[in-house]
Amino acid sequence: MGFEVGKKFWIAATAVIVVVTLFVVGRNLLHAVKIKRQINALNREREFYRARIEQDSTLLERLRYDDYLEEYARENYHMQRSDEHVYIIKE
Fold first, then answer.
1. Model pTM?
2. CA-CA distance, 34 to 28, in Å (whole number)?
3. Tell me, what's the pLDDT at 3?
């Protein structure tokens, strides 16, 4: 009878250890997947901002020239010279 109690104890202890191990491994796996998704999202965001910086740098370089600066102001801000009238026709 003493042998039966010891055997049942070790089976129960092994089962508890397996359950705890599976719980910890599963939890770590879920955490790793979550972190991987966050890394991918941040990489996409980084690429978006790199492209935006490149686009803005090109625009800034073009705005250094007065001809383009005037064209940009007219197109985007509807600016005009003091001696002219501009009519905007929307289609």
1. 0.57
2. 10
3. 58
